[in-house]
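quick one before i forget lol
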Amino acid sequence: MLPWKRPAGWWLRNPRYFLFQMREVGGVFAALYALVLLWQLREFSQGELAYATFLAFMGTPGMFVVNAVMFAFVLVHAITWFALIGKAQPVQLTKEPIPWQKAFAGNLVAWVGISVVVLYLIFGGL
């Protein structure tokens, strides 16, 4: 007798499974985005012409779509990961653990705050 196999598309039937799969795929897109950033640094180090060529390529409509898709998946990955942290590893500062919603909100506030500081330093800061 053959072992039981899940039917094709089993993860599409339950929203939690679907979100889990999207989070996992988001990790792959995060890695791809990191490779794009490393490629950008390499082209920047090669000189003005190489970097201008890279920017021209990244400015094409096709690459805009690719970057938008990668960004969407990375955003889903980050938000669902922050929501998961408070559930998988409850934060306990008092006798009772902090509700996962508060841990999630704290993570998002920290993420936005750090992002604002980084953007300030890159575009208008010190």
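fyi The radius of gyration is 20 Å.
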